[in-house]
Amino acid sequence: MPDTTPLLQIRDLNVGYGQKPILRGASYDVVPGECLTLLGANGSGKSTAMNAICGFVKPTSGSILFEGQETAGQPPHRIFALGIAQVSQARDLFPDLSVEDNLRLGAMRRGGREMAKTLAELYERFPRLHERRRQVTRTLSGGEQQMVAIGRALMSRPRLLLLDEPSGGLSPQFCEEIAQIVDGLKEDGVTMLMVEQNLNLAFRLADRFIVLRDGVVVDGGDVRAMAGDHDAIVRSIYL
Amino acid sequence: MFMQLTLSGLAQGAIYALIALSLTVVYRSTTVVNFGHGDFVMAGAFLSYVLVVLGGVAFLPAGALAVVAMFVLGVLFNRGLIRPILGGPHIGLALMCIAGGYVLRGIARMVWGREVLPMPPVFDMPPIFFGSLVITGDAIVIISTVLVLLLCFFGLLALTDLGKMVQAVYQSPRGARLIGLNVDRFNDVSWGVGAALGALGGILVAPVTLLHPDLGASFLIKGFAAMTLGGFGSLGGAVLGGVLLGVGEQYAGAYLDSSLIEITAYVIIVLVLFVRPQGLLGRKAVVKV
Question: ABC transporter domain: from which residue to which, for each copy (chain A) (predicted)?
Answer without folding.
Answer: 8-239
